[in-house]
Amino acid sequence: MKRPYTVVLIVPTGIGASIGGYAGDALPVARAIAQTCDNLITHPNVLNGAQLYWPIPNAYYVEGYGLDQFAKGLWGLQNVHQNRIGLILDRAIEPELRLRHLQAADGSRATLGLSLTDYMVTDAPLEVELRTSASGASWGTIGNPDSLLRAAEKLIQQAQAEAIAIVARFPDDPDSLALENYRHGKGVDPLAGAEAVISHLIVRQFSIPAAHAPALSPLPIDPALSPKSAAEEIGYTFLPCVLVGLSRAPQFVTQNTIESIWADQVDAVIIPESACGGSGIISFSQQKSLIIAVENNQTQMQVSPEPIGIKAIKVNSYIEALGLLVAHRAGISFESLNPSISSLRCLA
Questions:
Q1: Measured between alpha carbons, how far is 66 from 283 in angstroms, rounded to an integer?
Q2: CATH T-level topology, domain 6-79+253-337
Q3: 134-143, 179-188, 201-210, 274-283: lowest mean pLDDT where?
């Protein structure tokens, strides 16, 4: 009996990926790849589409810091039937906007059958600030991280939360050029980098699944809106996809069990060709995993595999990557699929 075929799909957040840099626009890629493998491991930036999401039975929803720890071989992934989700709301969220998020959470319980604990409001505003690096990537800070950690700790210890969803109030800047570009399918998501900082903090501290949804005032209707950004424009909150993802997110484990998945079981990793500088892909490159670099998914990072010593097969598109996965899983040499094949040579 063959062991399960496992693929990791990475599209780093906040770097302006032309596929996966917008509102869940890498979800079709994930759905297609899931058909080629037994296990698909990916992260919220790929699967989150605000009000829109898709149940992929064989997908593992793994927060970025947790994915890095998994890639290093420090944590394994343990599948679950359902997580009990604790919800944290930033004290800075206005009463009406807070109510919108609570209604989204209650709707997820009533309509989707998700399990949530009672929620927490942070004891101080989180004070999110947005930043942009010299490369054009987005990042950010929170002024009161201890307030976030106290809320999470209470949900875990007193409400038995097994995963944490965070909603932080993000600055409104409706007239910014970065937001205008993003809404028109260009540039970098100005929120994504700060979102990653928030979820990383929870996962690093408590070693449980976490993901974030920003709270923002609704924007005026834009008739020139890009389809890639449209998922974020159809509701008052981005929370539903986060709750759905966390409901089945694997738990992190440090002891190997028969049911857990570890980095040395990963058969292939797919990454944008220009985004190979992250901790996760560097760790995976030291395993026996096939690394597939997709050239037409351009990013702001401009870190190709060769200069940093990563051996990768480059393909033009995710459609080509799907073909490689099918052949790899079948145990077929890529060379044999070409019009010509060279003869064997004698090893001196």
A1: 13
A2: Rossmann fold (3.40.50)
A3: 134-143
Shortest CA distance to 72 belongs to which of 283, 285, 289, 288?
283
Give the pair of three-digit tokens for residue 185.
């399918």
Phi, psi of 59 (to 5 degrees): -100, 140
Please provide the DSSP assignment of 209-223 as one string.
Answer: -EEEEEE-PPPPP-T
Is residue 135 scored above 70 in pLDDT?
no
Q: 84-249 in CATH: which number?
A: 3.40.50
Mean pLDDT in the chain? 92
Pairing of strands 251-253, 76-78: antiparallel
Strands 138-142 and 128-132, how do they pair? antiparallel
SS3 15: coil
Task: Count the helix, strand and coil residues of the chain and give each as a percent rounded to the nearest 5.
Answer: 35, 20, 45
Query: How far are the Cα atoms of 86, 238, 242, 244 from residue 105, in angstroms, in the given order?
Result: 10, 11, 10, 10
CA distance 190 to 133: 11
**CATH 3.40.50.2000 segments of the chain:** 6-79+253-337
Split at pLDDT 50, 70, 90, the class of 1 is low
